[in-house]
Amino acid sequence: MQEDFHYYATYCAAFIAGYSHEESLDIAYSAQFVDQCSRTLLAKIKGPSEAATTQLQLELMDARTDPVGLQDITRIWSAFHFLPRDLLAEKKKCCRLYREKYRLICGPNGDLVKKTVELAKDRPLQSVGIAMHVLADTWAHANFAGTPSLVINNTNFVFYELLYEGDGFKERPVQFRHKTSAPDDLDKGIYTNTLYQNNEHSIMNLGHGRAGHFPDYSFARYRYLPAWGEYGEIIKDNPADYLKAFTQMIYSMKYIRGEKESFETGVYDMEAVSPWLDRIRGILEKRQLLACDDWKAFGEELSGQAVEDFVIDKYFDEYVKSPKKEKDETFIGKFAHGAVAHKGMVISEIRRSGNRLAGNVKGTLAGLWKGARG
Q1: Does 306 have pLDDT greater than 60?
Q2: Does the model's pTM come out above 0.90?
């Protein structure tokens, strides 16, 4: 997903869930900041590198791809962007390494989604935003994994966009290219992706890089044949999935606020959005590179207040200028603790399942995780 959903749509969901305008802005900022909080950024503001929730392209280009380096990549991307759906998924007649990668395939409504939402309860708003980012991405990034793998994440020529025509859909082959200087061409169906690399562990084969930003667009409907599914057809309907993501966020935040006694996967608060259902579906179906303006307008109509645009350095001065012993109580400090707690939980669960690809919770991360949990 992109800024349009992680920031503006998350603001809308938080407000509908019962948070105030100011609280909704803080949740939305935290959700979007997950896509910004790299080690490079944390070094700039002298924050803990263990709290990194993403990696810049330059960081990935310099990343090691030995077992230790791959574990570091997997810890970040599986925790925050490609939350595994089933850590105990069965795969017959395959080697252990492939089965471990197969079990990291992302998808909604897995056990880790429940643990993610429950972990955010009774924690600061920053943890709520982190949880909403992770939950939303399980819908957009479904069927890809947050670890480099050509077998799991590659796409081939059988990749078709489904476009409305009459009472049904027509198929148009998706044209992937590696030309980062040009935006995706929605009219012609041309999308930028990563370069093909036949090395199983190349960072070019991380997540949905081989499909570019296409899976992040809320309007996207497509079918393709992933190798991990024995080349069986998968049809992805983003407008329907993003509506589920939006209504699941509302339900989740009502639980976090204490309005719901328990959180269960597979529950969507359609009743809460019923007054605006056509409006929301219209935004999700609209073919555009970014839907920020539409979600922002909707949010301002909901709250009657101006929804400020996302500004990455909004809370940097507070953090940088605070004495060391007070940094944990700043906005960025609370975000860092929430990020470490979530990352530690996911790594621990992956390792507890017998999967070695994310390594262990140890060293400085273990200490920070213990502090965050306490």
Answers
A1: yes
A2: yes
